[in-house]
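Ticket #4471: structure export looks truncated?
Reporter: QA, pipeline team
Priority: medium

Steps to reproduce: submit the single chain below to the structure queue and open the exported record.
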Amino acid sequence: MQRLLITSAIVLLMPMTASATPLNIQVEEVPVRATPSFFGEIVDKAVYGESVELLKEQGAWRRVQTLRKPGWVHESAVSTSKVELEAGSQVNAGASGKEIALAGKGFNAEVENAYKAKNQQINFAWVDKMEKFTVNNSELQQFVKQGGLRGEGL
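Actual output as written to the record:
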């Protein structure tokens, strides 16, 4: 009888110990933050195609385990779809992370050039400048502190 109770308890608890949900990074690079906020300290980064383990959901934020450490990423940076990079006949071995991320979403130089050709009135110089703009974590933290910003839920 005791054996039957133990076996029953194990069978009932098995669904509760199911494996964690794998997520895949779908952007070029995403900061992994200490808190679920765009203002949270960056503790790691994950790159396009990297697989992470979902630990917890909180609003639009996902607590994940990277290969190195746990942290929070925004839901827009991850997907349950498997990201697979396959070599084709015309592979550019020198592709940047940005090129790989965009190509994985179906956006490449040909698509960009076609869009520019159809929209010649648009000045893309500012887009190019924005892509080069970076802010390091210490500058961000100083900005948040000086501005008295609170990042809960952001």
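Status: closed, not a bug. The export was complete when the record was re-opened. Leaving a note from the reviewer for reference: The longest helix spans residues 2-13.
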